[in-house]
Amino acid sequence: AVAASATDLSKVYGQGETRVVALDQVSTQFHRGEFTAIMGPSGSGKSTLMHCMAGLDSVSSGSARIGDTELSSLKDKQLTRLRRDKVGFVFQAFNLLPTLTALENITLPMDIAGRKPDKAWLDNVIETVGLSGRLKHRPAQLSGGQQQRVAVARALAAQPEIIFADEPTGNLDSRSGAEVLGFLRNSVRELGQTVVMVTHDAVAASYADRVVFLADGRIVDELRSPTADAVL
Ligand code: ADP
Ligand code: ADP
pTM, whole model, 2 decimals? Predict the structure, then answer.
């Protein structure tokens, strides 16, 4: 099944002399249970693709779909709800609230949305990301890698259809980065999640099932890991 897709997606910023074609007719599919890395030089359109796919930015032409839903067909309110219910985000800055415990941070988006977390799922997520012994700690009492794992668990907790991660290991040393990537990969393998990750780092990309290379707003190459067939 397809969790999200882009079809002839183009994004143009500005006009006249400041006109920039950030994405030029990009088409790709993100399958359920697949971990995709998006790589490419600075300015190649990686963030723009993620923002368009996540409904954080509008497309200029073509379409971005989450499941069967074309994002441009939604009104603002419907889009906000879709993002809240079906999309998880992990950013480079962890965006954790310092006064809340790890567990409170993880469940905060659901608390705000007035949704009760599925306890079995939540336990599974916490176990998968390896935070069982750290739930009462506040962010300042956790390492960078543990804080990023809290951010990953927060994105997973609401059982989103797809998670977008923008350089999730950008602020971490290589050991903590490897931990977080391992947990992202586990969440794909063991929880059946779909993850799309932007990265500059070939080591980070090696954790993915599929790597999509962007240059000048186009997909110029695509690699699939030899073990990825087991997932699809
Ligand atoms: P990447 O994430 O690969 O570094 P971006 O998606 O951020 O690339 O940017 C792609 C292109 O679009 C770049 O040329 C960038 O300058 C341009 N761009 C991105 N965001 C904006 C914006 N809000 N306004 C104008 N141009 C933008
Ligand atoms: P950048 O790529 O420029 O560093 P971010 O990726 O942090 O910026 O955020 C891009 C946009 O997404 C911002 O306008 C921000 O307000 C918005 N945003 C960040 N987190 C969320 C979220 N969880 N839900 C909805 N919008 C978000």
Answer: 0.84
Strand ranges of the sheet holding 20-31, from the earlier edge strand across to the other edge: 20-31, 2-13, 61-66, 69-70
CB 150 within 8 Å of CB 90:
no
- Token pair of 183 as six digits: 């947990």
Spatial separation of the C-alpha atoms in residues 219 and 48, rounded to whole Å: 13
| Cβ contact 5:57 at 8 Å | no
Q: Which residues line ligand 2 (CB under 6 A)?
A: 47, 56, 83, 89, 91, 166
ipTM of the complex: 0.69
Mean pLDDT by 10 residues, the chain (232 residues): 96 96 98 95 95 95 96 95 90 88 94 88 87 94 91 88 90 83 86 91 92 97 73 42
- Distance between CA atoms of residues 103 and 107, nearest Å: 6
Candidate from 49, 50, 89 with most ligand 2 atoms within 8 A of CB, to mutate:
89
Q: Are 182 and 147 in contact (CB under 8 A)?
A: no
Compute, in angstroms, the gap from residue 151 CA to the centroid of ligand 2. 14
CA angle 167, 171, 131 (to 5 degrees): 90
Q: What does each C-alpha distance from 15 to 12, 43, 101, 218 come to in angstroms?
A: 8, 17, 46, 20
